[in-house]
Give the backbone structure.
Amino acid sequence: MIFPIPKYYITLKFLEHDLRGCLHPGVDLNYAGTVGNQDLGKPVYAIADGQVRFVGFNYPSGWGGMITIYHPQYKVFSIYGHIESPKVKPLQKVKEGQQIAVIGNCRGRWLAHLHFEIRIRATGSPWTYPCGWSIQKVLKYYTDPIKFIQKHLTKKQIQEIKETPRQKALHLLDEIKRKVDEIKKLI
């Protein structure tokens, strides 16, 4: 198993509240060392072997593009949101590490990043976002994607993804810029 982008940093964690006050059911990831929209067009990879279940676009909802892959060996769905240029189709089998799309920004609605989830059971619609759900209900359908992948990584893989202090500083700067841009949109 691998992460959907190599050497990443997290801009919004699992179960943190987003700007709308909703519990975040996944993680928002950026390539290490990038800020702003520098991730736009960078590759997104399948975390493990599986079968594509859904590919679609929904810009009004804030998702942009989305891919859902079912991984029968783990009995989970991986969700890749805010993507562009999908390189896979529904029912297609994919291999771990295969490029499936590129990072998008929902036509400028967000700074470029990958919204990534692990769903432990189907939610009925791929577009489900648990706004207004309790933590208990969220945990019935979602699990922390970072912890899930880390549980399945080798020790060597874990060492390779540790953040440097410079990467952490860039992450904080990018998070501040993102929040300022979002506040400006509200004004």
Observations:
- The chain has a mean pLDDT of 90.
- Residues 8-186 form a domain with the Glucose Permease (Domain IIA) fold (CATH 2.70.70.10).
- The chain has one domain: 8-186.
- The helical segments are 135-141, 145-151, 155-160, 165-186.
